[in-house]
Phosphoesterase RecJ domain-containing protein (Butyrivibrio fibrisolvens DSM 3071), 317 residues
Amino acid sequence: MRIEKEIGSAETIGIAGHVRPDGDCVGSCMGMYLYLKKVYPSARIDVFLQEIPEVYSFIPGTEDVNTQYQTDVEHYDAFIILDTGKGRTDGAEVFFDNAKIRINIDHHISNKEGTGDINYIYPEASSVCELCYGVMDPEIVDKNIAMALYTGMVTDTGVFKYSSTSKKTMEVAGKLITYGFEFDKLIDHVFYEKTYKQMQLLARAILDSKLILDGKVIVSVTDSKTMEEYDAKGSDLEGIVSQLKLTSGVGCALYAHQLSDNEYKLSLRSDGSVNVAKVAETFGGGGHDRAAGITMQGDIDDILAKVIAKIEESISK
């Protein structure tokens, strides 16, 4: 698949990713945006994302992102949804539905069929950024596009150590660094560096954590009071669940943070002993075998009890 062949002679193009965008979502959306700006210099191209976490603001073009989900385009000639199905794109879903050409590129097993007219879905891929490079002409890709795509690959593979990392992943990453950006500094910035606020929140999450199920599972919750205390956003909590997972003897980490009065975002990580994608799907979430997420409503103790019961069931099989 070559993306410009699918888009054709479009004059208006929309791009969107999932709510609470992570590195792969931002990287793929911005990489695609920068690429299409080169292929279609006279076209109107809009990117819709809920926010751009500060850590990814170095990517060129992020200042152009539409976070209000408002547009004067009645029907986009083409609309691309990346790193999710259309149901998790917030206000962009209606733009996608009304577009003439609807393209969905994703690597989540929970979206195995895709939600577009044209679907490029490969659950075995390390990231959507890896897939995006595969649908682009390498001769058109430049330093900024490569940098955006590398960002998503680094964050979604845990600097190439997660099980989703394949020979192809490393080959694509190797090709991207030939475009000339400082990949070592990029890795430090997007994966290892934390603000003081983020370090404090991580420390609180570790201090408040509990080991359960004979030490095989670690659980922690950040409530809205703590979020307010640190004036924190959801993006400030990125990476906490992975850090919890590094606890010796732990096979599965469950981290929740409060979104509103009775709504919580749950992140799950596993070493393979628990298929967290299946656990998440039980409650309307999704993801990968070793990394998944859920948004649930209700009392946090009830929510945790239900999810932990599913995790325990998975462990015992």
